[in-house]
Amino acid sequence: xxxxxxxxxxxxxxxxxxxxxxxxxxxxxxxxxxxxxxxxxxxxxxxxxxxxxxxxxxxxxxxxxxxxxxxxx
Length: 73
Prior knowledge:
Low-confidence stretches: none
Largest sheet: none
Number of helices: 3
Order of helices and strands: HHH
Distance between the termini: 11 Å
Shape: globular
Radius of gyration: 14 Å
Number of strands: 0
Mean pLDDT: 84
Helix content: 25-40%
């Protein structure tokens, strides 16, 4: 099985978000499963920048907080 490309993943995620009234629902493949520092790095920012501009690091979720299946399975 081939992996979907980034454009397909993004399109699927946006479609799923639209189906949920614009709200992000947590799932096993979402960025929020990662440690806060990794989430910040994947967004192209440093922890120092994030703390200065946003204030708090993002939270890491656990499997009991998943709300839906991933956009692409």
